[in-house]
Amino acid sequence: MTEDAIATRARALAGALTEAGFARLRVRDGDTEIELRRAPRPNGLAAAVPAPPAAAAEPEEKPVEHREDIIASDVVGILRHVRPPIAEGQDLDTDRELASVETLGIRNPVRSRGGGRVVAVFVTEGQPVEYGQPLFAIER
Amino acid sequence: MFRKVLIANRGEIALRINRACRELGVATVAIFSEPDRLSLHVRHADEAFCVGPGPVMRSYLNIPNIISAALISGCDAIHPGYGFLAENARFAEIAADHGLTFIGPKPAVINAMGDKATAKRLMHEAGVPTTPGSGIVANVEEARVVCEQIGYPVLLKATAGGGGKGMRAVAKPDELPTAFATAQAEAEASFKDGRMYVEKLIVNPRHIEVQVLADEHGDVVHLGERDCSVQKPSHQKLIEEAPAPELDVAIRDRLHEVATTATRAVGYTNAGTLEFLVHGGDVYFMEMNTRIQVEHPVSELIYGVDLVKEQIRIAAGEHLGFSQEDLHAHGHAIEVRVNAEDPDNHFAPAAGTLTSVVFPGGPGIRVDTHVYSGAMVPPFYDSMLAKIIAVGRTRESAILRMERALSETRIEGVKTTVDFCRELLGDPEFRAGGIGVGWLPAFLDRRAAAV
Predict the structure, then answer these.
(1) Residue A56 confidence (pLDDT)
(2) Dist. CA B266–CA B288, nearest whole Å
(3) Is A130 close to B59, i.e. CB distance below 8 A?
């Protein structure tokens, strides 16, 4: 699968993951394996869980559903922002590189895995980051 | 001395290393997997990095993330503990390539001792007695010729083997073809190395090992022997003691002498253990473990030497600072491994939450553990929860003390080996001392038959 195809597939799976309420989902397709996990919400971040629809609510008053993805580091290293750095409030039309984590001289790109609005940037340039550390929050 | 050490391990040994560093004034960095976030070793360290999810391949064996954690936190050395990467020469090399001192022997020595056939050959050349046997045998026909020469029963062993994998006992010639094929296949599958050799099977020997320390300036000392003959059918040790009870003085002296000679001969540095089989008046070298061992506290308590601190000092290039004449053993020490496993069900490992944990105390008791009331036991790792060590003036007083300590111990939430070990301590054969490695399997058979 191409990188775009994987991203598309992962987005579809992320929807299924949220709907089913699973914490983790792994799908193997030929030689491609996609694993999705729901990241713990960092402190101080507003909950983006869709409000439960009120039984009596008019359909047109139903709030627009927003989903927030936490982009976390999957390696241990030093964070390097792209230039210019991604800012909070920035809109992303599509999947793009947000930063990279440098591990033993190797640059590991961190991608947005689709478009959306960056609602939080948790890390600063040159900061040491650990495995699973939240780097960005993106509202889809 | 180092400024900051990364502890590349978890559990009680990570805490043990942290304590040694504290006393030396060295800062510490812990690593942990996601399920270990609340483990005590993380809280005791100055800094901590999550290096991956639960499965060991992605966390405690994740070399790039571990080395990266050491570098970004400004460490100058790595202590590997035991298990995981402790005897991985490649890890030691990668650490060195990044300017980090690996606290252990040199990679070439780790490699030589890790390959059992090579280790045996080197020891034989150094005049160390080894079990009669062969070099690598290419096929079952070559094995058959060797078996005829040394006589049955024999042990088929994989040179890359460990933990009983790739090993088969063969009592009679007609068992050889099947045993060879299955042992080789197991070795291929487990170690990607199917090279086999043959050894004379010593029936019910004692497992006695000698602790050595060697600095980088050529000084070598031993810290006596430990008797680790109480082994589960899987060959895992359950109770260890020092000194070895009911051991002939001449054999004891010979073991100590052979261990220090061998240590010098292979150019060994840091702490190490030479394992021997002792059968009647015969002594056979089995293998050398190039790491700190689980049961090191029994030697520490009778010699008054902190082996982990010595490891760190030696790796920092310091002199031993004492000679063999300065070392004297006092009293007797015994260690019981408290494992989260079910002795009534083939020691099946248990995972879960420890609802209540109370460890013993009082005179002569040491507890090395990473668990506490409310701690989770993840399913990914070794099942050892704690080591309880008792020291006394005599073996009998150490055993009585251990029985008292085990009676104070309460661990609820998972099955453990605590009560089972109390049973073992009360057995008249154990009490008499000098049992072989066949004792515990026979004890289990008797116990099963009595139910």
Answers:
(1) 46
(2) 11
(3) no
Going through B148-189 in order, the beta strands assigned E by DSSP cover: 154-162, 165-170
- Which residues are within 8 A (CB) of B327 and not within 5 positions of it... i.e. 6 or more apart? B221, B223, B303, B305
Predicted confidence (pLDDT) at residue B18 exceeds the cutoff of 60: yes
pLDDT band at A66 (very low <50, low <70, confident <90, very high): confident
CA distance B293 to B306: 13
% pLDDT > 90, chain B: 92
Q: Which residues of B touch A (CB under 8 A)?
A: 34, 49-53, 59, 64-69, 71-73, 98
Would you call B68 and A76 a contact, using CB atoms and an 8 Å cutoff?
Answer: yes
Nearest residue to B271 via CA among B444, B12, B13? B13
Residues of B in contact with A106 (CB under 8 A): 64
* A83 and A104 Cβ atoms separated by less than 8 Å: no
- What pTM was estimated for this model as a whole? 0.86
Q: For B17-36, what is the mean pLDDT?
A: 98
Which residue in B158, B121, B134, B162 sits closest to B262, CA to CA? B121
Counts for chain B of helices (H) and strands (E), in that order: 15, 23
Distances (CA, A) of B124 to A11, B105, B117, B119: 62, 20, 11, 8
Select from B409, B343, B394, B309 the least CA-distant residue to B23: B309
Catalytic residue among B291, B313, B395, B401: B291
Quick one: three-class SS letters along chain A?
CCHHHHHHHHHHHHHHHHHHCCCEEEEEECCEEEEEECCCCCCCCCCCCCCCCCCCCCHHHCCCCCCEEEEECCCCEEEEECCCCCCCCCEECCCCEEEEEEECCEEEEEECCCCEEEEEECCCCCCEECCCCEEEEEEC
Q: How far apart are CA A83 and CA A69, in angstroms?
A: 22
How many whole angstroms separate alpha carbon A77 and alpha carbon B68? 6
* CB-nearest partner of B34 from A75, A104, A132: A132
- pLDDT given at position B263: 96
Contact by Cβ (8 Å): B226, B211: yes
Is the Cβ–Cβ distance between B305 and B212 less than 8 Å? no
Determine the 3-state secondary structure of B194 from DSSP: coil
Strands B384-392 and B365-369: antiparallel
CA–CA distance, B57 with B142 (Å, rounded to integer): 37
Lowest-pLDDT range of B162-166, B248-252, B315-319, B427-431: B162-166
State the Cα angle at A71 between B11 and A111, rounded to 5°.
120
pLDDT in tens, B165-197: 889 999 999 999 999 999 999 999 888 899 999
Q: Is B291 a catalytic residue?
A: yes
The three-class DSSP label of residue B380 is coil
Q: Which residues of A touch B69 (CB under 8 A)?
A: 76, 130
Q: Do B72 and A77 touch (CB under 8 A)?
A: yes
Instruction: Check: CB of residue B201 under 8 Å from CB of residue B438.
Output: no
